[in-house]
Request: fold
Amino acid sequence: MPIYVYKAKEDGCDSCKDGFEVFQTMSEKELTKCPQCGQPIKKVPANFGGGEPSMSNSKLRDLGFTKLVKRGDGSYENVTKQN
Ligand SMILES: [Zn+2]
Reply:
């Protein structure tokens, strides 16, 4: 499944202000709002990190990124959230 990276256009929440990854199918629409705070977001090139297919959740977290994974019920889970 392709990974898309989104970032808040202006101020956002902890998830989107530094960017977050989302797994989406090709048929899904591009997100325009952060699923967590509703702020406007934009898609950014997903090839940061030197073209790695995907970084580990802990690596993403270290870099200040958030990864959201869509669950079956349509909500998004923040898998990089620290407990
Ligand atoms: Zn947000």
